[in-house]
Amino acid sequence: MKNKKALVQKEKTKFKELLPYLIVMAISLIILVVLIALRTSTEVCEFMTKNVSGNINFVANKVASVFPFSLFEAFVITCIVILVALIVLLIVLLVKKRFMLVVKSVVLIGSICVLFGSYYVLVAGFAYNRNPVESFYPESVEYYEFYKIVKYYKEDFDYLSEKLSRDENGMTICPYTNEELNVLLKAECQRLDSSYYNVKACFNVKPLKVLSGFFSSNGISGITFTPSGDSGYVKDQPSVEITYTALHEMMHSIGVMRENEANAVSCYLLISSENEYLRYAGYFGYYRYLLNALSLNYDKDEYSQVLVNAKVSKETAQMNDYWASQSSLFDKVGDFFNNLYLKLSGEKNGTDSYHEPSVSGGVEKVEGDRVFVEVKYNSFQQAFIRAYYDKNGK
To answer: Which of 16, 20, 33, 261 would staple 133 via disulfide (CB 3.0–4.6 Å)?
Structure first.
């Protein structure tokens, strides 16, 4: 009986020792659950993104800008070192049969991870459930009017592809350093005069020097990590792709977290830029959306007149070869986790959300011997239409 009481007392003592750690874990979980619950309200997401997340990200970027290297990479490397050290420590404690200390350590580490998850939701998660970005041009555009717009861009695309300098492999050469490119892209972001965009928090984008190979082998060209206040891109990818990747990542930092919207706003800024290299990067990245729309009312002769020229085709093939050379087992693994992250963040289509299909509105119109279907222009096609009318008038 006496031994039983002693055993019970010992268990109570152990529970009292563990209780503070369990309380910390409980509080951490409550904070995370509350933030996730608040994120279901679009109104709350708008308020938090504009007034809380945006201000935190602004400060984080100011801090990150002081360092010449990526704080995201420094964070990842530090976490890996700490993780390895903790695993070794826990193994040592288990060998020494310090089981209570192991439990305390695991609960404490878990609490820290949950709190970091809460902070991530605070600085990034709310932006995923904001109102959609305003449509660039929701009005209907007839086929021949749209074809005239495509021909306009085809002419400019050809002009720029002939003018820009290229290397021995036919790849365009970026005339700017990373610092200069950041200045140019941030200046383009300033043209977004809507309060929807928190342009003051626009992150600097830096080349990933340590993790570049890891990301490319996972099929990832760039990343924005709001807790560190900076964005990064794979340094060895084609320079023209670096340009629209960098601007895409900047979009995330100013409150446009949904992937297709970040791409669409990037598209609009690039193709409407006065800078020729930026405009070429926009065409290179997004011109295909114009061809996709035309294909719904396909005419061989008309379509062939607006296909990209040989230099662009060669550069596209070189870019595809680069990513094919990076493909590995990790490519599918990276896609799996990126897909999972996006779905958990509210992107129902996961990695498919980077793109938008071209779809018919289902309405047919007969003109002479041709039957045209109405096209529901997606965000990218609307961006091209809007940029055309901005410059040339309707």
So the answer is: 261
C-alpha span between 47 and 39 (Å, rounded):
11
The rounded mean pLDDT for the chain is: 88
